[in-house]
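Hey, can you fold this one?
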Amino acid sequence: MPSDLIGELPSRVGRQGVSSYITEAVRLRLTMDGLNEIVASHEAEHGALTEQEIAAAHRELFGAEDSRATRQDAD
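Sure. Predicted structure:
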């Protein structure tokens, strides 16, 4: 891991500690990778997601407050 990232960790991790922080970051990345695989598989079979499908997924994941999800939000 680059030293500049290591240097930032102590001020970011708080009480949870570096190991827990890194574990959660890896868990989040694996989740996002899995979601990207699901989207890629769906698009390979059915074509690109529509703006409406993306907005619906955004609402389901994050609530109705900002349902104007764009293609960039999904990537």
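The chain has a mean pLDDT of 86. Let me know if you want another pass with a different chain boundary.
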